[in-house]
Design goal:
heterodimer, A: 216 residues, mainly alpha, 8 helices, globular, B: 240 residues, 7 helices, 77% helix, 0% strand
């Protein structure tokens, strides 16, 4: 199955490129609208990066599952004796590897436009690395729940975004601490624990909801 | 669950009496509670008369949290035991909870204007209650996004379950972050940090809100139940 994910990735680089360019374009639009003042850019950059990465994930995840459902793979997963959570884990792993890492790299590259210092870029990328698995797991859960629903990805964002808000808040407090030169380890620990907690809970509920999502 | 209380027909028959009782209690408690809280209780020595918003605001917030806990519990029941009554109660409680949350936010910002100088501050308590409102909205949106209501209820139940993580965040938000919002006055039941002349009206108002909740829940639950019976009956008619 892991091999299969790699093959899908190489076949669908084109469509992944879409989400990357969406991300970059939105980031540029935001920075253009804010204007060239460095102080404001420095404060707002982490927020924009985080929200845009979350949006990119929430917009691109449902398509991944929709394609699999049309191919009938999800029915196969149900027929297997093992729990569907291994499938979900592989899916999330693939998403982190093929969408998450490039996105975070791209974000780190582009955040030099936002007058962030080297230290801040490293910390920001670290928070994104910590938070991304949780975002991805939430995205997978949301797209399972909306698999047969009308409304699509806007609905998904309404459902999942409120749940991912703690991650955003803790990241902002980490970045604030770093910007002021204070000790940020407390917020960092909170961010990590929230991420792990959300990850576990959404995988658990996701595998519980799996049969319902596929069979309707 | 073969429990007698969980049978829809038993619910239909007993709920008429319960509805009458809770409606009278609502009216009674609202009357007494509003009189004692707005007129006969003393004003706060710092906040003056503006503090009387508390008697509307605090019970609404409590009931918003309580409704969500109830919603999550009913969602759990309906997912595990597939019980129709649990599904109906979950669907019925969602708009009531959203109403309480909305009321809590509105009265809170009306209270915030004279106290903090602003209607809205982005602090942890306010933000987490706003998230609670969005959870209710999301629950309802997901329920309505399916063409078959049974499917919608199940999808929304999963969402309600994962949304539980917001409840401890709301509860802890005042202690974990440095906020403008004051900590709870009733955290310890044996020795509350609020004088009894204010505590009694507050409890009366809470009782009024609670029985209002019960009455509307029963009313909505009965409507949903009858609607569902009608739907099944019409389906049967089309088949035969």
């Amino acid at each position: 199955m892991i091999q299969r994910e790699f093959r899908i990735f190489f076949l669908s680089i084109g469509s992944l490129f879409n989400s990357f360019s969406f991300f970059a374009l939105m980031l540029f639009c935001a920075s253009m609208a804010i204007g060239p003042e460095e102080a404001i850019l420095r404060r707002t950059a982490p927020v924009f990066l985080w929200i845009l990465i979350a949006l990119t994930v929430f917009f691109s995840t449902p398509n991944l599952l929709k394609v699999e459902e049309q191919e009938g793979l999800l029915d196969e997963v149900i027929l297997q004796p093992s729990l569907p959570c291994s499938y979900l884990l592989i899916k999330i792993g693939a998403e982190c590897l093929f969408i998450g890492l490039p996105l975070i790299g791209l974000g780190a590259l582009l955040s030099s436009f936002f007058a962030l210092s080297m230290n801040e870029i490293v910390v920001l990328s670290l928070t994104l690395l910590i938070g991304f698995p949780a975002l991805s797991a939430l995205g997978i859960l949301g797209s399972l729940l909306t698999l047969h629903a009308r409304g699509g990805s806007i609905l998904l964002s309404i459902l999942i975004f409120p749940l991912s808000l703690p991650l955003l808040l803790f990241t902002i407090s980490v970045m604030e601490m770093v910007r002021l030169g204070l000790d940020s380890s407390a917020s960092f620990c909170l961010l990590t624990s929230t991420s792990i907690f959300l990850f576990i809970v959404s995988i658990g509920i996701g595998s519980w909801a799996f049969r319902f999502a596929v069979e309707g | 669950m073969k429990h007698k209380w969980a049978q829809p027909n038993f619910f239909l028959s007993v709920s008429r009496l319960l509805l009458a009782i809770s409606l009278t209690l609502t009216a009674l408690l609202f009357g007494v509670g509003l009189y004692t809280s707005l007129i006969s209780s003393p004003p706060d020595y710092i906040q003056g008369d503006a503090m009387r918003i508390m008697y509307i605001h605090v019970p609404a917030s409590w009931m918003a949290l309580f409704s969500y806990a109830f919603l999550a519990l009913m969602s759990f029941f309906s997912l595990v035991w597939r019980h129709p009554l649990a599904e109906i109660l979950a669907i019925s409680v969602a708009p009531i909870g959203a109403l309480f949350t909305f009321l809590s936010l509105v009265t809170g910002s009306l209270w915030g204007k004279p106290m903090w100088g602003a209607f809205w501050v982005w602090d942890a308590r306010l933000t987490s209650v706003l998230i609670l409102l969005f959870l209710y909205v999301g629950y309802w949106a997901l329920y309505k996004a399916y063409s078959r209501p049974e499917q919608g209820i199940r999808a929304a139940s999963f969402l309600a379950l994962i949304g539980i993580i917001n409840l401890p965040i709301i509860k802890g938000s005042v202690e974990w972050w440095n906020t403008l919002h004051q900590p709870a006055s009733l955290s310890k039941l044996s020795n509350p940090s609020i004088h009894s002349s204010m505590l009694v009206p507050l409890l009366l108002m809470t009782g009024a809100y609670f029985f209002y909740f019960v009455a509307v829940l029963i009313l909505r639950g009965r409507t949903q139940l009858i609607k569902r019976k009608l739907m099944i009956w019409e389906n049967m008619k089309t088949y035969t």
